[in-house]
Specification:
Layout: H1 3-9, H2 22-32, H3 41-47, H4 54-58, H5 66-110, H6 115-169, H7 185-188, H8 190-193, H9 199-211, H10 226-247, H11 305-318, H12 323-331, H13 341-351, H14 354-366, H15 380-399, H16 404-410, H17 417-439, H18 445-464, H19 471-483, H20 487-497, H21 500-531, H22 549-568, H23 575-591, H24 604-614, H25 620-651, H26 655-667, H27 669-679, H28 685-704, H29 711-740, H30 752-775, H31 782-803
Length: 818
């Protein structure tokens, strides 16, 4: 459904004049940029809708600049905000009046008056709370949700028109002191709106953020919590009314068709949320609490769909409030399905009318609650095993870094081969990611088992290379380990089989598991230096040394993981995905017109437009983002892979000290991304990218010039700067890439996520192989030979970023022209 239709259909008729006038604002954009009005029947119906009648469409103000359009938008925001504040006050007054009636009824119940009269009063008061408070609360939440989305949509349409104007005119304002057209996204989009210069915009989005905050038990909230207070009092009252009604009917298993399921009693918290007690669909699991907390079978359950709708709406609003998890989404190139139309329509079908509510209450009492269409269920253990796979792999990837140079030296080769040994793993990932992207479309369990087997075999080959005195076996073992990288499978598993509310947290867990593996790997190498002798020493043999120990230990870990995975990992049910796809195909076939009167397919022109887009690569912004990904991974890999060799040559660090330092570096990944996520509320992606590039170049320059008595401190300081800047650069780069990538590259096997992963992997390979080439010139020249070209690339990247600075922002080409 196009947003114009959704916006009009979702409005509450008595409040229609208080919504953002989306249609009028869209007409102003047409006028401002001299665009042609759409003339199809659907758009004619929209223009002549009650909210934007003929008179208003004929008397549009004659605006000439973006500032004038912004003033019109500000007026609409003010109108919606003032209505929202007034209605909130009215709802609070009604809640206060009903609370007085509740207190009076409480006194009557304590006096134990006539039971039948009390039951009638309880029922009447309960329905008043639902109708006058619950319904209005839900309508206000939907009012906020719809208006915030309308503001976002209209600003994107305006900025999309600005982008096209810049392309056609070269971005020149013909000498005007005040630019005629300018983007508005940094004032109105949810990411920046809380820092907008307009007080009305700030207030509206802060209220929306508070409405989406369902963490009732947090004591560190800066918002006033008014939504929580209203919902708490509503639920508390309904729960008490139900308790009285039950007590007044002793011996009855059911109180009637209006019985409820006590949502609060399903968990330890005072009330809500439901996410831990709901399946992946909108079905309910009513008996998940422990036996000690479950009601007796003779007691009716407490269930109120209105409360669930309120909570679900607040959940949707809350999806945009956690900036760090949003950054994680962009970091992993996952589509955000927060406003999924199918789920929304399913929700409205289940709870959209009083009849459906009554029916659902009755079904819940009789134990015949319909859970909707079949949905894939995944166990918590399967989720854990999926995350354990990526954590083990990242640990495996980094555990050999401190000892790779020593391994090559033991086999009679130069330590320069350390980069070659490390680089074999990402080189194999380039090929394996394509295979696993295809395989995971059919089976997750078999693909993960195969990948884990490759890792186990690869580690065993790596450990046996020293007794066999073969560098080829070392390289083959690392190559096999890289072929066992299942991160593509792990990421897709989270995207496909976590429900909407769990998906963002699931991806955050995925990134955290990866970071944990990155930190544990070097730390494990440092620990093994205590229990295994260094190769070549007097007490060392050829089988168990500090160089071969990581191979044996990781082989044991992977074997244990394989056994547990084979026994306990459950293949998700794919029935729902198949049924949904078939239903969509059937629906589209039924609704699609065959031929128009002149014999031409009516859908031909839009389809041609879509097909034309499908061959678009995204232009300069996409290429710049991919270049930056290659650069930052090359610098990061060059730093971490060269640290053992450089620190051992200049400062005589042993394996223990080097491994500990690398573990500390890796542990800074999550704090760095959290800081970037916080900063990104105030600054655009391109601004953060430019700042991190300058920080990276400064760190590389300092890293190349350390000398003297404080050389070791300089080495630590500037390597920290490089590592933090590279990790901080990745988040906004992936975020920008997710906004400028064409929609045609967001799905399928060779999608944007795969493209970004391949760019990063190529960067790793370049960094490792360049390290090997630089080390052949001598360890004393390693730093200059490795980082000299990299600082030139960083400088070139800064120049390219500045040259294309105006293009490094969302174009919104995929925004529908409804």
């Amino acid at each position: 459904m196009r947003f114009g239709d959704k916006f009009l259909n979702g409005q509450h008729p008595p409040w229609q004049q208080s919504y953002i006038d989306y249609i009028r604002l869209k007409q102003l954009i047409y006028q401002l940029f001299d665009l042609e009005h759409a003339t199809d029947e659907k758009n004619v119906d929209i223009i002549e809708s009650p909210q934007s009648d003929v008179s208003s469409s004929r008397h549009l103000p004659n605006i000439k600049t973006s500032n004038e359009f912004q003033q019109q938008l500000n007026n609409e925001v003010q109108k919606a905000l003032l209505f929202l504040l007034r209605t909130l006050g009215e709802m609070a007054s009604e809640l206060s009046e009903l609370s007085e009636e509740f207190i009076t009824l409480s006194a009557n119940v304590q006096l134990q008056l006539n039971a039948s009269d009390l039951l009638e009063q309880i029922h009447a008061l309960r329905m008043q709370f639902i109708d006058r408070v619950g319904s209005k609360l839900l309508l206000l939440l939907e009012f906020i949700e719809l208006n915030v989305e309308a503001i976002t949509k209209i600003v994107k349409k305006h900025d999309k028109a600005v982008s096209r104007w810049e392309e056609s005119s070269g971005g020149h304002n013909h000498g005007d002191d005040q630019p005629r057209y300018q983007r508005l996204r940094t004032q109105y989009l949810p990411r920046f709106a809380v820092h907008s210069t307009n007080a009305n915009v700030r207030c509206l989005f802060l209220i929306a953020a508070d409405a989406g905050d369902t963490d009732y038990n947090s004591k560190e909230r800066s918002t006033f919590g008014g939504w929580n207070a209203i919902q708490f009092n509503l639920e508390k009252t309904l729960k008490q009314l139900f308790s009285w009604e039950r007590d007044l009917q002793p011996g009855q298993n059911r109180v009637g068709v209006d019985s409820f399921v006590n949502l609060a009693s399903l968990q330890d918290d005072e009330f809500l949320p439901l996410s831990r007690h709901r399946s992946l669909s909108f079905g309910f699991e009513l008996n998940l609490s422990s036996p000690s907390k479950q009601r007796q079978s003779s007691e009716a359950p407490f269930f109120e769909p209105m409360l669930y709708r309120i909570h679900s709406t607040r959940k949707r609003l809350g999806q945009s409030t956690n900036r760090y998890n949003r950054m994680v989404y962009a970091h992993e190139m996952l589509g955000d399905d927060t406003h999924d139309d199918n789920n929304q329509s399913q929700m409205e079908t289940r709870f959209g009318s009083i009849e459906n509510m009554q029916k659902l209450r009755s079904q819940s009492i009789g134990g015949d609650l319909d859970g909707g269409p079949p949905s894939p269920m995944v166990s918590q253990l399967s989720k854990f095993l999926n995350l354990a796979s990526t954590s083990l792999y990242m640990c495996n990837y980094n555990v050999t870094t401190p000892t790779s140079g020593l391994y090559a030296k033991l086999l009679g080769f130069d330590e320069a081969h350390a980069g070659l040994i490390i680089g074999m793993t990402p080189a194999a990932v380039i090929i394996s990611s394509v295979l696993y992207s295809w395989w995971s479309s059919y089976s997750y369990k078999r693909a993960i088992i195969f990948a884990s087997s490759c890792c186990a075999i690869g580690n065993l080959i790596y450990a046996f290379a020293l007794p066999c005195n073969s560098l080829t076996m070392v390289l083959a073992g690392r190559l096999m380990t890289g072929f066992g990288s299942a991160r593509t499978i792990n990421r897709r598993y989270v995207a496909d089989y976590y429900n909407l509310e769990e998906r963002t947290a699931g991806m955050a867990d995925f990134v955290s598991a990866s970071a944990l593996g990155m930190a544990v790997g070097p730390g494990l190498a440092a620990f093994l230096s205590y229990v295994a002798p260094e190769g070549g020493s007097r007490d060392a043999g050829r089988w168990w040394t500090v160089e071969t120990a990581p191979g044996y230990v990781m082989f044991a870990f992977w074997c244990v993981y394989l056994v547990v995975n084979i026994i306990f990992f459950e293949e998700p049910d794919r029935i729902q995905q198949t049924s949904v796809k078939e239903e969509k195909a059937a629906t589209s076939d039924e609704r699609a017109p065959l031929k128009s009167n002149d014999g031409v397919n009516t859908e031909e022109q839009p389809c041609a437009k879509t097909a034309k887009r499908s061959f678009s690569f995204g232009g300069v912004p996409v290429l710049v983002c991919l270049l930056l990904l290659v650069l930052l991974k090359a610098v990061l890999e060059g730093l971490t892979s060269s640290t053992p060799t450089v620190s051992r040559f200049y400062f005589e660090w042993d394996v223990n000290l080097c491994g500990t330092y690398l573990a500390i570096l890796a542990s800074l990944m999550i704090p760095a991304n959290y800081v970037v996520a916080t900063v990104s509320r105030r600054f655009d992606d391109r601004e953060i990218i430019l700042a991190m590039l300058v920080m990276m170049a400064t760190g590389i320059a300092g890293f190349m010039t350390y000398a003297g008595s404080d050389a070791e401190a300089s080495f630590i300081c500037f390597s920290l700067v490089i590592f933090i800047s590279c990790n901080a650069l990745e988040g906004p780069t992936m975020g920008l890439l997710s906004k400028v990538i064409p929609k045609s590259l967001r799905a399928g096997i060779l999608n944007a996520g795969w493209l970004a992963t391949e760019a990063g992997t190529i960067g790793r390979v370049v960094g490792d192989f360049w390290l090997s080439g630089a080390a052949h010139k001598g360890i004393d020249n390693l730093v200059d030979a490795l980082f000299g070209p990299l600082i030139l690339l960083a400088a070139a990247s800064i120049t390219i970023t500045l040259w294309n600075y105006s293009q490094l922002q969302p174009r919104y080409d995929d925004e529908e022209d409804d």
